[in-house]
Specification:
single chain; 222 residues; alpha/beta; seven-stranded mixed beta sheet; two-stranded antiparallel ribbon; 9 strands
Length: 222
Protein backbone atom coordinates (compact mmCIF):
# COMPACT_ATOMS: atom_id res chain seq x y z
CA UNK A 1 0.00 0.00 0.00
CA UNK A 2 1.37 3.41 -0.98
CA UNK A 3 1.93 5.88 1.84
CA UNK A 4 1.16 8.87 -0.47
CA UNK A 5 4.26 10.78 0.65
CA UNK A 6 5.84 12.50 -2.34
CA UNK A 7 9.62 12.54 -2.53
CA UNK A 8 10.78 15.93 -3.88
CA UNK A 9 14.02 14.81 -5.55
CA UNK A 10 13.73 11.47 -7.32
CA UNK A 11 16.23 10.54 -10.02
CA UNK A 12 15.44 12.35 -13.27
CA UNK A 13 14.22 9.74 -15.77
CA UNK A 14 16.87 10.69 -18.33
CA UNK A 15 19.62 9.68 -15.89
CA UNK A 16 18.57 6.05 -15.42
CA UNK A 17 19.73 4.66 -18.81
CA UNK A 18 23.01 6.59 -18.53
CA UNK A 19 23.66 5.07 -15.11
CA UNK A 20 22.84 1.62 -16.47
CA UNK A 21 25.49 2.10 -19.17
CA UNK A 22 28.15 3.03 -16.62
CA UNK A 23 27.23 0.01 -14.50
CA UNK A 24 27.18 -2.42 -17.43
CA UNK A 25 30.55 -3.99 -16.59
CA UNK A 26 28.96 -5.26 -13.35
CA UNK A 27 25.69 -6.27 -14.97
CA UNK A 28 25.32 -9.30 -12.68
CA UNK A 29 26.86 -7.73 -9.59
CA UNK A 30 25.74 -6.05 -6.39
CA UNK A 31 24.97 -2.32 -6.55
CA UNK A 32 24.32 -0.10 -3.55
CA UNK A 33 22.47 3.20 -3.42
CA UNK A 34 23.30 4.57 0.06
CA UNK A 35 21.02 7.65 -0.35
CA UNK A 36 18.21 5.80 -2.09
CA UNK A 37 15.13 7.90 -1.38
CA UNK A 38 12.31 5.86 -2.94
CA UNK A 39 14.70 3.33 -4.48
CA UNK A 40 14.27 4.51 -8.07
CA UNK A 41 17.77 3.22 -8.83
CA UNK A 42 16.11 -0.18 -9.33
CA UNK A 43 14.83 1.04 -12.70
CA UNK A 44 18.25 0.23 -14.15
CA UNK A 45 16.79 -3.29 -14.41
CA UNK A 46 14.67 -1.96 -17.28
CA UNK A 47 17.93 -1.35 -19.15
CA UNK A 48 19.43 -4.81 -18.81
CA UNK A 49 20.85 -4.86 -15.28
CA UNK A 50 20.48 -8.39 -13.89
CA UNK A 51 22.25 -8.12 -10.56
CA UNK A 52 21.03 -7.18 -7.09
CA UNK A 53 20.02 -3.69 -5.96
CA UNK A 54 20.73 -2.73 -2.34
CA UNK A 55 18.90 0.43 -1.27
CA UNK A 56 19.63 2.33 1.93
CA UNK A 57 17.57 5.26 3.17
CA UNK A 58 17.67 7.02 6.55
CA UNK A 59 13.96 8.01 6.46
CA UNK A 60 11.88 4.83 6.35
CA UNK A 61 8.82 6.54 4.88
CA UNK A 62 10.56 7.13 1.56
CA UNK A 63 11.52 3.51 0.96
CA UNK A 64 9.15 1.30 2.97
CA UNK A 65 6.75 0.75 0.04
CA UNK A 66 9.64 -0.39 -2.19
CA UNK A 67 7.65 0.77 -5.21
CA UNK A 68 10.50 0.13 -7.66
CA UNK A 69 11.39 -3.36 -6.49
CA UNK A 70 14.80 -3.09 -4.83
CA UNK A 71 16.18 -6.47 -3.78
CA UNK A 72 17.39 -5.46 -0.31
CA UNK A 73 16.52 -2.46 1.87
CA UNK A 74 18.19 -1.02 4.96
CA UNK A 75 17.17 1.98 7.09
CA UNK A 76 20.47 3.38 8.33
CA UNK A 77 22.81 6.36 8.42
CA UNK A 78 24.99 5.89 5.30
CA UNK A 79 28.09 6.61 7.38
CA UNK A 80 27.56 3.42 9.38
CA UNK A 81 26.16 0.89 6.91
CA UNK A 82 26.50 -2.60 8.29
CA UNK A 83 28.00 -4.53 5.38
CA UNK A 84 31.27 -6.49 5.10
CA UNK A 85 34.35 -4.90 3.59
CA UNK A 86 34.49 -5.06 -0.23
CA UNK A 87 30.92 -6.37 -0.44
CA UNK A 88 29.72 -4.35 -3.44
CA UNK A 89 30.78 -4.23 -7.07
CA UNK A 90 29.43 -0.72 -7.44
CA UNK A 91 27.75 2.19 -5.74
CA UNK A 92 25.34 4.36 -7.71
CA UNK A 93 23.73 7.29 -5.96
CA UNK A 94 22.66 10.91 -5.87
CA UNK A 95 23.43 12.73 -2.61
CA UNK A 96 21.54 15.82 -1.59
CA UNK A 97 22.78 19.02 -3.21
CA UNK A 98 22.88 21.28 -0.16
CA UNK A 99 20.42 23.69 -1.79
CA UNK A 100 17.19 25.25 -0.53
CA UNK A 101 15.53 21.84 -0.46
CA UNK A 102 17.38 21.48 2.85
CA UNK A 103 15.21 24.24 4.39
CA UNK A 104 13.32 22.88 7.37
CA UNK A 105 11.78 25.94 9.01
CA UNK A 106 8.04 26.64 8.97
CA UNK A 107 7.16 29.25 6.37
CA UNK A 108 5.49 32.36 7.76
CA UNK A 109 4.41 33.85 4.44
CA UNK A 110 2.25 30.96 3.26
CA UNK A 111 4.49 30.32 0.26
CA UNK A 112 4.90 26.87 -1.24
CA UNK A 113 7.79 24.81 0.12
CA UNK A 114 9.23 21.90 -1.87
CA UNK A 115 11.78 20.53 0.58
CA UNK A 116 12.62 17.15 2.07
CA UNK A 117 11.19 18.14 5.45
CA UNK A 118 7.96 19.66 4.17
CA UNK A 119 7.24 16.77 1.79
CA UNK A 120 7.93 14.17 4.46
CA UNK A 121 5.77 16.01 6.98
CA UNK A 122 8.13 15.94 9.96
CA UNK A 123 11.68 16.87 10.90
CA UNK A 124 14.40 14.74 9.34
CA UNK A 125 16.86 12.56 11.20
CA UNK A 126 19.75 14.73 12.47
CA UNK A 127 22.17 12.65 10.37
CA UNK A 128 20.17 13.21 7.18
CA UNK A 129 22.10 15.43 4.77
CA UNK A 130 18.73 16.53 3.43
CA UNK A 131 18.54 19.08 6.25
CA UNK A 132 22.08 20.41 5.70
CA UNK A 133 22.77 23.51 3.63
CA UNK A 134 26.00 23.40 1.61
CA UNK A 135 28.72 24.29 4.10
CA UNK A 136 30.92 22.84 6.83
CA UNK A 137 28.48 20.28 8.27
CA UNK A 138 27.38 19.13 4.82
CA UNK A 139 30.97 18.71 3.65
CA UNK A 140 32.19 16.93 6.76
CA UNK A 141 29.28 14.48 6.73
CA UNK A 142 29.79 13.52 3.10
CA UNK A 143 33.54 13.10 3.59
CA UNK A 144 32.89 10.67 6.44
CA UNK A 145 30.28 8.79 4.42
CA UNK A 146 32.56 8.46 1.40
CA UNK A 147 35.40 7.22 3.56
CA UNK A 148 33.13 4.46 4.88
CA UNK A 149 31.70 3.60 1.45
CA UNK A 150 35.18 3.27 -0.05
CA UNK A 151 35.77 0.27 2.19
CA UNK A 152 32.55 -1.42 1.05
CA UNK A 153 33.53 -1.44 -2.65
CA UNK A 154 35.60 -4.24 -4.14
CA UNK A 155 38.96 -3.36 -5.70
CA UNK A 156 38.25 -2.62 -9.34
CA UNK A 157 34.71 -1.60 -8.46
CA UNK A 158 33.11 1.74 -9.28
CA UNK A 159 31.22 4.64 -7.74
CA UNK A 160 28.67 6.33 -10.03
CA UNK A 161 27.63 9.76 -8.75
CA UNK A 162 24.77 12.00 -9.85
CA UNK A 163 25.23 15.59 -8.65
CA UNK A 164 24.64 19.19 -9.78
CA UNK A 165 25.43 22.75 -8.80
CA UNK A 166 22.85 25.28 -7.63
CA UNK A 167 22.42 29.02 -7.36
CA UNK A 168 22.77 30.74 -3.98
CA UNK A 169 22.50 34.55 -3.68
CA UNK A 170 22.84 34.84 -7.42
CA UNK A 171 26.09 32.85 -7.60
CA UNK A 172 26.70 29.29 -8.79
CA UNK A 173 27.79 27.00 -5.94
CA UNK A 174 30.40 24.39 -6.95
CA UNK A 175 28.76 21.36 -5.37
CA UNK A 176 30.05 19.16 -8.19
CA UNK A 177 33.64 20.18 -7.52
CA UNK A 178 33.31 19.42 -3.83
CA UNK A 179 32.00 15.89 -4.39
CA UNK A 180 34.69 15.15 -6.97
CA UNK A 181 37.36 16.21 -4.51
CA UNK A 182 35.78 14.37 -1.56
CA UNK A 183 35.54 11.10 -3.46
CA UNK A 184 39.08 11.28 -4.80
CA UNK A 185 40.36 12.11 -1.31
CA UNK A 186 38.58 9.01 -0.01
CA UNK A 187 40.56 6.89 -2.47
CA UNK A 188 38.53 6.71 -5.69
CA UNK A 189 39.95 7.68 -9.09
CA UNK A 190 37.83 9.80 -11.44
CA UNK A 191 37.28 8.15 -14.83
CA UNK A 192 34.40 9.93 -16.56
CA UNK A 193 32.23 13.00 -16.10
CA UNK A 194 29.14 13.09 -18.30
CA UNK A 195 26.86 16.15 -18.41
CA UNK A 196 23.11 15.64 -18.96
CA UNK A 197 20.66 18.44 -19.75
CA UNK A 198 17.61 18.24 -17.48
CA UNK A 199 14.55 20.30 -16.56
CA UNK A 200 14.20 22.21 -13.27
CA UNK A 201 11.24 23.28 -11.14
CA UNK A 202 9.44 26.28 -12.62
CA UNK A 203 8.84 28.24 -9.44
CA UNK A 204 10.76 29.61 -6.49
CA UNK A 205 13.20 32.44 -5.88
CA UNK A 206 15.85 31.33 -8.40
CA UNK A 207 13.58 29.78 -11.03
CA UNK A 208 15.11 31.87 -13.83
CA UNK A 209 18.70 31.09 -12.80
CA UNK A 210 18.58 27.36 -12.05
CA UNK A 211 21.27 25.02 -13.31
CA UNK A 212 20.01 22.77 -16.12
CA UNK A 213 23.03 20.47 -16.17
CA UNK A 214 23.37 17.36 -14.06
CA UNK A 215 26.57 15.35 -13.85
CA UNK A 216 26.93 11.58 -13.86
CA UNK A 217 30.48 10.93 -12.74
CA UNK A 218 32.23 7.57 -12.69
CA UNK A 219 34.99 6.81 -10.17
CA UNK A 220 36.95 3.60 -9.67
CA UNK A 221 38.56 1.90 -6.70
CA UNK A 222 41.98 0.76 -7.96
Amino acid sequence: MQNNIIHPAKFTDALIPEMAKMLDEFNNGKVLDPFSGTGKIALIKNYGFKGKIYANEIEKEWIEDNEYGCDYITIQDAEFLDYPEEFFNAICTSPTYGNRMADHHNAKDGSKRITYTHCLGHQLNDANTGKMQFGKNYKNKHKQIYKHLFGLVKHGGIFVLNIKNHIRRGEEVDVVGFHKEALTQSGFTLEEDKVIQTHCMGFGQNRDKRIHEEHIIKFRKQ
